[in-house]
Amino acid sequence: TRLGKELQSVKEVVEKMRQRQTQSEDHLRSLEQRLGQTIDQKLQQTRRNLTTSFNQSIEQSNAIASARSAESFSRLQHTVSSLTTAQQELQQNLGGITTSHQQLQQLQQNVTASI
Questions:
Q1: What's residue 15's pLDDT?
Q2: SS3 of 67, please?
Q3: Angle CA(108)–CA(45)–CA(37) in degrees, nearest 5?
Q4: Entry pTM
């Protein structure tokens, strides 16, 4: 019957919409996982950079305390420069993380809007 065909057509459309929603949710979960991994990797690398710079700073500060020479002071200046560079890298990484987070939020809004 015509009503039965229309009902079947509506059921098919609803099923396709459910499939698309499931696919969108799966894709969003995948993106969230990749973003989380990227953030973790950047944070670990930044942590290693900062630890290395901090350890170098302590070593160089100890050398200055024992030698108190112009050369030791020059190395301290280099350490300060290294720490400044590390801080700038951290700020850039955090900016990238913020941008990625904003992109993820926009994607979530787009997926929600398309559903």
A1: 94
A2: helix
A3: 30
A4: 0.41
Whole-angstrom distance, CA of residue 13 vs CA of residue 2: 17
Scanning the structure block, which residue is given the tokens 């200055």? 64
Each residue of 55-111: pLDDT tens digit? 998 988 887 677 677 776 787 799 999 999 989 988 888 888 888 888 888 888 888
Q: In whole angstroms, what is the distance from residue 39 CA to residue 90 CA?
A: 12
Q: Which two tokens stand for residue 96?
A: 């990238």
Residues in the chain: 115
Structure tokens at 72: 């030791």
Angle between helices 2-67 and 70-114 (to 10 degrees): 170
Cα-based torsion angle of the residue sequence 52, 58, 64, 67 in order, rounded to the nearest 10 degrees: -90
Higher-confidence residue of 36 and 22: namely 22
CB 50 within 8 A of CB 90: yes
What are the DSSP calls for 33-56, one per residue? HHHHHHHHHHHHHHHHHHHHHHHH
For residue 97, the one-letter residue type is I
